[in-house]
């Protein structure tokens, strides 16, 4: 049996049986549940393979989640575990001692040898000092469910996914494996973003500053310290009674995350009767819903602008570059030498070792040319998420909150969000925006007293704080309302309740609602009173037009259908602002010089832009030309930003700026061999097997809300989405429970032999949706519903 028959047969076999707890292949048993009753979960697979999991306790709930995620995405989870185990070089190869896999392995092996995760599991199990028993049960159950599936299929040799079938790196999980993947996610915007600089750090030689041991990592470090986690972002709306037709709350979730790899989302509905009932999505490998809704509350996250680490400038002891002064007294750095095995081209493996240097602030980091390790100074960082063991408990309690006021109390109690904002609304019609994330405690007073003068401009422009590490008074300290030292407490974090709307599209907190700007917060959280991105401006403009009825949709408020149409209207706001002026310019000047000195005829480009519909729909002709123009830096404005009119300014093309036509000429050059007036869906696609699925949306630089990043392949087009819109949810919280629309753009499974490998991607291509299926009536109405039960530790 091959092809569709094999996929259908596998799906029917999985869905149509009760799975016993017998071991296959002699794999070790997973940890047992605390209650001694054994693991048991009911799985109801709805349309598009979305699992609705019900269990009698959190251990069995985790068991169900681990099992279904292994069914659909085992290879993704297994590779995540390889990464955090420091074994990428061993299994996936390395080109040499400075290879990215080697650097990753050294970083994660150091964390293992430091027992970073084990330390976070000690202490009172209250969800703040260490994870609660409920969360530990979920982790333990997830591992048992994953291992149960792996045993049931007979081990890696019998997997249907070619990505990891018969691969030696596929093995049963341990609880520590999962805790390590969680830690890696927590430090995504901190020490993990600085990984290359941590690995490269070495004391200076007698002749001068040490050269970076891993030169290829320098650019990555510089990029990491200049913004939020690379490759991720989001849009979100929280709509209150003043913005919806039913006068209750409504939420748009539109995270922009990678379409491949460890940061894909997974849709699921999780229920422990009487204790937890949440539908939504989580990152693959996580056992709890992170974006979603319960009966009366819905929420989403967007990547925050706040910094997750601070620099400490160390004044070094003369003649001893591994000792530094604090309050005039020397302190010695600690060192750890870590060794990983790297494939030898001649066969076998060779060891690669690196000595890491740590201070009481955190690891020493080197960014060549910016933060060098000299005989006089070095730089260490404090990553405040490196000790964040509160996240799963926070999300668990978030799922139990009934209103946005309840949610605020959860945020205050756990202070767990690692690098995201929260946007929420409840059935009463109140909405919430909060950058209630884990932020280093750099108050205005600390910044003024402790950031040396040469680094003050850096802090003002970017929020990167370089503190004087030679004074103990310049340590992060503790806010009285913070749950742990070193982070800003709730009183210092921006929060806004509204009954009309709140929104965020990855700019700072300032304009969550332009009618009530959030101002006066520490610079480390984000800037205020500055120009917003085109995507942020479009997000606000869309809401404002809806509420005034000027968006060509019926009425003046949102329904979930109108919200869906708004998100996937695919307006290119940059084009709306400057296209006509650009066409007038290239009509008057039909040739221009590209950056490489080539003279370019612009007449065909001008015609294509003139005929473009100002959208990024699959049938939009010329959209790709405008996005290439935008990516080349062509959207330049003649008028100034006005803080009193931040949504509508600036708005006029700087037609006299020579860089504008140069960018259009560069766009034409880049698109050589691709028709300038092609339909977007003919050149922007996503592969699924031998299919090429047309994809709508486009980059934020063009002012497109439905962000899709699909790199250009010269002469071909855009054949593979890298990241963008992923889990999209428009949910209404009404008197009869939640309802609305949702989709996972890249589909539920990464396995090409799964029936759920491409179905939602085709649905997304046509702007379709799956319905919210939270209530029993909604779920039972699904004609594709199939039910099965899994268990381990007892027989049925």
TrEMBL record:
CDD domains: Ntn_CA. GO terms for biological process: antibiotic biosynthetic process. This is Acyl-homoserine-lactone acylase. Belongs to the peptidase S45 family. The keyword Signal applies. Keywords: Hydrolase, Signal, Zymogen. GO terms for molecular function: hydrolase activity, acting on carbon-nitrogen (but not peptide) bonds, in linear amides. The keyword Hydrolase applies. Coiled coil: none annotated.
């Amino acid at each position: 049996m091959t092809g569709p028959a094999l996929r259908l047969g596998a799906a029917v076999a999985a869905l149509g049986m009760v799975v016993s707890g017998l071991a296959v292949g002699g794999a070790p048993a997973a940890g047992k549940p605390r209650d001694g009753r054994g693991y048991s979960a009911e799985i109801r697979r709805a349309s598009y393979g979305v699992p609705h999991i019900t269990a009698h306790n959190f251990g069995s709930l985790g068991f169900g989640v681990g099992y279904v995620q292994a069914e659909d995405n085992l290879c993704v989870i297994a590779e995540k575990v390889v990464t955090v185990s420091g074994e990428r070089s061993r299994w996936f190869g390395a080109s040499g001692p400075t290879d990215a896999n080697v650097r990753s392995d050294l970083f994660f092996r150091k964390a293992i040898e430091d027992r970073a995760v084990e330390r976070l599991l000690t202490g009172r199990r209250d969800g703040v000092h260490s994870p609660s028993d409920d969360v530990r049960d979920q982790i333990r159950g997830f591992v048992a469910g994953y291992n149960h599936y792996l045993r049931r299929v007979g081990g890696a040799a019998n997997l249907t996914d070619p990505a990891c079938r018969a691969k030696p790196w596929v093995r049963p999980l341990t609880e520590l494996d999962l805790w390590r993947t969680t830690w890696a996610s927590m430090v995504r915007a901190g020490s993990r973003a600085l990984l290359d600089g941590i690995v490269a750090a070495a004391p200076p030689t007698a002749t001068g500053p040490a050269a970076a041991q891993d030169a290829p990592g320098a650019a990555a470090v510089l990029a990491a310290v200049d913004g939020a986690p690379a490759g991720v972002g989001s849009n979100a709306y929280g709509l209150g009674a003043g913005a919806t037709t039913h006068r209750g709350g409504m939420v748009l979730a539109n995270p922009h995350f990678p379409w491949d790899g460890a940061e894909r989302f997974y849709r699921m509905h999780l229920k422990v009767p009487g204790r937890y009932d949440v539908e939504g999505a989580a990152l693959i490998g996580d056992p709890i819903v992170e974006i979603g809704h319960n009966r009366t509350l819905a929420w989403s996250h967007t990547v925050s602008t706040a910094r997750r680490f601070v620099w400490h400038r160390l004044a070094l002891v003369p003649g001893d570059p591994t000792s530094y002064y604090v309050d005039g007294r020397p302190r010695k750095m600690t060192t750890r030498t870590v060794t990983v095995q790297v494939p030898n081209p001649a066969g076998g493996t060779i060891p690669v070792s690196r000595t890491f240097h740590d201070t009481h602030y955190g690891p020493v980091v080197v960014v060549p040319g910016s933060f060098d390790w000299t005989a006089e100074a070095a730089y260490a960082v404090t990553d405040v998420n490196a000790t964040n063991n509160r996240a799963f408990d926070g999300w668990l309690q978030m799922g139990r909150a009934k209103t946005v006021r309840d949610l605020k109390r959860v945020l205050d109690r756990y202070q767990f969000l690692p690098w995201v904002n929260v946007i929420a609304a409840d059935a009463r019609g109140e909405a919430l925006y909060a950058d209630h994330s884990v932020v280093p405690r750099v108050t205005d007073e600390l910044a003024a007293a402790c950031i040396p003068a040469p680094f003050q401009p850096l802090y003002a422009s970017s929020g990167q704080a370089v503190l004087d590490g030679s004074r103990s008074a310049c340590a992060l300290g503790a806010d009285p309302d913070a749950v742990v030292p070193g982070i800003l407490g709730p009183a210092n974090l921006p929060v806004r309740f509204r009954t009309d709307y709140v929104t965020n599209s990855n700019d700072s907190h300032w304009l969550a609602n332009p009618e009530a700007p959030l101002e006066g917060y520490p610079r480390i959280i984000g800037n205020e009173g500055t120009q917003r991105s085109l995507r942020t401006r479009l997000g606000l403009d869309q809401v404002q037009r809806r509420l005034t009825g000027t968006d060509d949709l019926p009425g003046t408020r949102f329904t979930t259908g109108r919200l869906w149409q708004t998100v996937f209207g695919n307006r290119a706001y940059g084009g709306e602002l400057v296209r006509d002026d650009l066409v007038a310019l290239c009509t008057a000047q039909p040739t221009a010089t590209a950056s490489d000195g080539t003279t370019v005829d612009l007449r065909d480009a001008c015609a294509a832009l003139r005929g473009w519909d100002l959208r990024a729909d699959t049938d939009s002709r010329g959209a790709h030309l405008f996005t290439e123009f935008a990516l080349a830096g062509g959207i330049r404005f003649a008028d100034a930003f006005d803080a009193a009119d931040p949504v509508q300014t600036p708005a006029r093309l700087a037609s006299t700026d020579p860089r504008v036509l140069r960018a259009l000429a560069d766009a034409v050059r880049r698109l050589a061999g691709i028709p300038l007036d092609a339909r977007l869906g003919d050149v922007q696609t996503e592969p699924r097997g031998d299919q090429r699925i047309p994809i709508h949306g486009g980059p934020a630089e063009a002012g497109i809300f439905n962000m899709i990043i699909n790199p250009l392949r010269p002469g071909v087009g855009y054949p593979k989405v890298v990241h963008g819109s992923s889990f999209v949810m428009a949910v209404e919280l009404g008197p009869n429970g939640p309802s609305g629309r949702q989709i996972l753009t890249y589909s539920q499974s990464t396995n090409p032999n799964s029936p759920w490998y491409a179905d939602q991607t085709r649905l997304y291509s046509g702007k379709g949706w799956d319905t919210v299926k939270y209530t029993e009536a909604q779920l039972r109405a699904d004609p594709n519903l199939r039910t099965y039960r899994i268990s381990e530790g007892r027989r049925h």
